[in-house]
Amino acid sequence: MNNKQKLQDAKKELLALIQQDNAMETIAEHLILIDDSEFPSSEWSALNKMILAANEEAVAAGYRQWEKLGRNVKKGATALHIFAPVIVKDKEKNKEKDPDEEPETKLVGFRQIPVFGYSQTEGEEHQIEVEPVDPPALLDVVEELADEVNYKPFTGKAAGYYNPKNNSITLCSHTEKILWHELGHLLHYQVRDVQPSKGQDPEKEIIAETVAGVLAVIYDEKEFIPNVKQYIDHYSKEEEAAEAVSRVFPIVEDCLDLLFSVKEKQAAA
Question: Fewest CB atoms less than 10 Å from the CB: which of 43, 46, 47, 211?
Fold first, then answer.
């Protein structure tokens, strides 16, 4: 079967699956997490952990705390700032208390504390291994087309992202569909004159996820199709997912033609 026929068959099957009324439930996409129990940030408030996530850090600590952990803050690193409660003794409530009793306290405000994320330090390694034990399908193509491919722990934001400015892919998941989605973005930039956009562009997201959906069919990972449908539904708004897939498929076909050509060159080498 030639590549063109393979793509048309995959498109037909993908459309049939996402139009099923009794579609399967979505499955969890496994994220790369770091064991943060040895870091001070493991006990921080939800707000402070959100500050870390916003700065794409999984863990953090103060300057001296990092030294105790065998790491040093890199020269020139800019501190992040978290909020620490300011608690004082409540003089009014303690007037009538026995001096031997535990004094009453009260919260009077918050102060900012400078801390540094793991990536801002160097020294003794504490991170878990983030590279996949078994390379996912098409990782070899991604590594050939991208200038850089990195795996790192999930920080509460995206499970993966493509940066067109330096043609790099970052993955916070070992799930193949995440890799294929980011590969879809990379291929889209390769086959079309696409300009970078601020935030997520719905059209680009639909194209990338359709690439992932077609590859899920081709590589018999159809359990991901409900996730594909849910993702496309989110970005297609009032347009049905099947209609969105059909509309963008000419671009998707060009993306996958490039992918197949790279695979064929690799096989012939």
Answer: 46
